[in-house]
Amino acid sequence: MATKSPRLLMSQNQHIGIIGAGIVGLSTALWLQRAGFRVTLIDMDDPGMGASFGNAGLFADYARLPFARFGMMAKMPGMLLDSQSPLSLRGHYLPKLVPYGWRFAKACLPANFRKGRQALTALVSQAIEADQVLLQQTGSDYLVKQQGCLGLFATQAGFDKAKIGDLRERREQGVNLEFLGADAVRELEPDLSNFHVGGVFYPDTRYTVSPVDLSRRYARYFEANGGQFIRDQVVSIDHQHHAVSVQCSQQRISFDRVVVSAGVASKALVQQLGVSIPLVSERGYHLTLEPGAKSLNRPVGWLDKAVFLTPMVDGIRVAGTAEFADAEASPNDALTDRMLGHAGKMLGADLVATSRWVGSRPSTPDSLPVIGSLADKPRVTLAFGHGHLGLTLGSITGQLVAQSIEGRPTAVDLEPFSPMRFNCSIL
What we know:
The protein is of the alpha/beta class. Helix content is 35%, strand content 26%. The chain starts with 5 loop residues before the first helix and ends in a 21-residue tail after the last helix.
């Protein structure tokens, strides 16, 4: 009779709670389940109904440059003052941006930017393989298409500047990309108008035709294989010597370990543990276009306007903008009206939106997610702060969390993503 390994026995004897059932939390649950742990997911909403519901659907393999860099920092004041900019700030949120702001400036220093770029590149380069494991395991492959992705420019000057700037850096980081003129773009997407001079084509980029259905597939597989989902609100976390106690609004549960993956709500939860992470709410918007004569074969971005159009099962999704505001603030309809106007110019048509949505991305000042255990509370692991890359980095994050909890060598060095990199203790 074969004997089980000590690591497998350890896994089977441990109960892990995951707070947050977005794509990162779901992916983490699946990887921990694969490792043999007993896993419980807790969220106040159904799986995938937070920020994961509203993303542009892109597995952005090209996104290997931190947002935190001097070129962006120099543009931000003008962007915030420009009413037509894709970046905006609600006045009430300004005080909460102060801790974020000075750390953002520090992250822009050349040496720090290079370290951040190296760390993000390492993470993204491992993401595709990790995605494939979960997509195949859960039978979700049919929800993901590989038709590439287009990023277009309205002016030749803007296109030329990008070629010697961000696009050159991306190519140096190993991104497969091609420069296309307007005629070549038209061959790929004949329903686009002539708003552009050309742009960049990422042939390897994938997208999902339904982010929420992908989350639901993951959740169903998780529960069908012994995982438990509890719909409840987590009120507090208490790290003890032999366990972690999680107080919900309706019950109290004890776990051997806890993973915090609750998006923007993670900040308040870990503050109770004496840790302050400079996480901010960076809201994104999307709207769904009424079906019409126009169609797309792949995601298309108007990079000057930071707007993406993605063909999905319920119609073309228009996603974009970055608004610093409280997660609970009322939607800014002017932003979605502007996005609808941009989409109309891209498709050369008067468009009607059948639905509008707003959600909060959990963003860090250095553009890197927070992945790892707390130094003095090792039974609590953090996995949040993915900003615009939650879908892109969800599976690799889950794999890294599972590896670290198992005590295995991790596929990517976790030091750059450590929760303690912000010197964030408040006790």
